[in-house]
Amino acid sequence: MQNPSNLSYWEHQSFFGPAEVVIIGAGLVGLTAALYLKQLRPTWRVVVLERGGLPSGASTKNAGFACFGSISELLEQEKRGDLEAVVAARCAGLARLRTLVGDAELDYQPVGGYEVFRHEEAALAAECREKIGYFNDLLAPVTGHVRTFRDASHEAGRFGFRGVETLLKNECEGSLDTGRMMRALLARTWAADVPVLTNCAVETIENTDSGGVRVVLANGVTVEAGQALVATNAFAPELLSEVAVTPGRGQVLVTEPLPNLALTGTFHYDHGYAYFRQLPDKRLLLGGGRNLDFAAEVTTSPGLTEPVQQYLEQLLHNVILPGQQPRIDYRWSGVMGFGPALAPIIDWVRPGVLAAVRCNGIGVALGAGTGWLAAEKLSRA
């Protein structure tokens, strides 16, 4: 008999053996769900499967913004549902992440988030400025601050931006190191006796006669479990066609080190579709632009496009660092999951199969909270 995977007895028993729960996706949601599940059910055997060598979506590719929304974003999002509950979930998720990993390991910096308005956006700037008091009152019970937002236009001169007169600051946002976050979560997951198996692409999830699930991998290996959690965000429809998730690719670039760079804070522009910040080694990170052509960015394929890259570079050269032409040292893209509702999907979609997906481009804020809610559901089933 052939053994195409060439797995040994030991590998089957210690890594791919039967489990109470198999988690598909080793991103922020999948790993936090694994950690919380082991807290709730310490004796359960849990295994995490990841298709890539590293998480393949956005968890290791995001910009490291610990944010929950600028005023222009909140104005639009308020039209789609209970904004106070949405922001509360984002703030709670950030608090969970900081508690689970720790600010030192995250390199969490409470620097605040600025929304940038150029001269030509004066009308939008005025509308957002008028809403400062309203959003401060609405979100005070959520953030614990009576003055979450303030007009910081007097600070515009110190950043050296061109054509920017209005800055509105969210005092309750910050930044973190995405790579350190994921390394810490991976280390904690292994330490909790949960194997995280990479390069294990899942082809199908089947129900078994015994009431459990069978996860079939592309290499022919199968994993038997009582339950499965699909935490693959934008990639979820590849396994669960009934899940309403639309992918959205985000492109990012990072410059060479710039010794004179002094941008303390995180920065949002164009309704949050563009964002930038300074990294610890004095590089500038800049991303976004998918609103230039939404249809082109509705894809799970990695890649860069000339229009978006040109837009980012023009924003860099003409507004953020006027008169400078820094070398671009890194370019990449990550894939996020979006849908008609702002809240994530955390639901049973098939017998024994739970989906925890669709973080709507704000996975850093929602990931740990989504993982917690998924773990609770799994532990009670």
Word description of this protein:
The protein is an alpha/beta fold. The protein contains 12 helices and 18 strands. It has helices spanning 9-14, 28-40, 71-77, 83-101, 103-106, 122-130, 132-143, 156-159, 178-191, 294-297, 306-320, 363-380, and strands spanning 19-24, 46-49, 65-66, 113-118, 149-151, 164-170, 174-175, 196-197, 202-207, 213-217, 222-230, 246-255, 266-269, 274-278, 284-288, 328-338, 345-350, 353-357. Strands 1, 2, 8, 9, 10, 11, 17 and 18 form an 8-stranded mixed β-sheet that branches. An 8-stranded mixed β-sheet has the order 5-6-4-13-14-15-12-16, with helices on both faces. It has a two-stranded antiparallel sheet with strand order 3-7. Helix 2 packs parallel to helix 12. The two termini are 38 Å apart.
Report the major sheet: 8 strands, mixed
> Strand-and-helix sequence, N→C?
HEHEEHHHEHHEHEEHEEEEEEEEHHEEEH
The tally of strands reads 18
Using the alpha-carbon principal axes, give the shape.
globular
Strand content of the residues, in percent? 25-35%
Report low-confidence residues grouped into runs of 5 or more.
none
Oligomer: single chain
**Number of distinct helices:** 12
Give the C-alpha Rg. 22 Å
Task: Looking at this protein, list some descriptive labels.
globular, 381 residues, alpha/beta, 8-stranded mixed beta sheet
In short:
The chain is an alpha/beta fold. The chain contains twelve helices and 18 strands.
